[in-house]
Amino acid sequence: AAGVIQSPRHLIKEKRETATLKCYPIPRHDTVYWYQQGPGQDPQFLISFYEKMQSDKGSIPDRFSAQQFSDYHSELNMSSLELGDSALYFCASRFTGGDTIYFGEGSWLTVV
Amino acid sequence: AQSVAQPEDQVNVAEGNPLTVKCTYSVSGNPYLFWYVQYPNRGLQFLLKYITGDNLVKGSYGFEAEFNKSQTSFHLKKPSALVSDSALYFCAVRVDGNNRLAFGKGNQVVVIP
To answer: CA B18, CA A37: separation in Å to the nearest integer?
Structure first.
């Protein structure tokens, strides 16, 4: 079965650079979520989109922005990167009317 | 606010013995509860969920969980642990109104051969 696809899987950036992560949800899933998991931490909710509109907002820094496109894929844009942004970033998707949120393999961001 | 707590940091169990990973919840209204597993350097894999119905929920890889309303618990169980079950296990609750998940701190399970 198709899963949530994230790219790139690994990314190394320097401080103050920008990074973009991409997410392709499971086919027919219309809701996308972004989570950040720091080393040894539980995943923290950043932001979600339903039908290309932001549906919920969590602890996403102002330096970060995200959007969902007409094909339902989503991109997380991170600017002015800081060392503390080094984390595993998960995208997840859900079909409206379903209860289960499915996660991708994550994108490892290392800021040096 | 909806939240879950996983009171233990690490659970050690011998291979073949029963495995239990504890989770308690705090919600207003009916809880939507989930268990996910994370293998090293991998994503979160869905194991099982409780929405409504039978208190005993069966999931993937031989795992099951028991919803206990009086104790506000949703413990994950497996009758006979395998070495390959060694991983990080997260309990999660759906936050009312917006469908996001709030996770517990996670439990590291170590199955000893």
So the answer is: 29
Kindly report the nearest CA distance between residue B67 and chain A, in angstroms.
Answer: 17
Q: Which helix (H) or strand (E) holds A90?
A: strand A87-94
Q: Tell which residue, A38, A48, A40, A41, has the closest CA to residue A103.
A: A48
Question: What pLDDT, on a 0 to 100 scale, did the predictor assign at position B37?
Answer: 96
Per-residue pLDDT in tens (0 to 9) along chain B, 113 residues: 789 999 988 999 999 999 999 999 998 888 999 999 999 888 899 999 999 889 999 999 999 999 999 999 999 999 999 999 999 999 999 987 668 899 999 999 999 99
CA distances to A50, B40, B66 from A55, in Å: 6, 31, 31
Instruction: Give the closest of B99, B103, B105 to A94, CB-based.
Output: B99
Using DSSP's 3-state secondary structure scheme, residue B61 falls into helix
Q: Is the dihedral of CA B77, B82, B84, B86 positive or negative?
A: positive
Query: What CA–CA distances, in Å, run from B4 to A38, A86, A112?
Result: 19, 25, 34
**Given CB atoms, is B94 within the 8 Å cutoff of chain A?**
yes
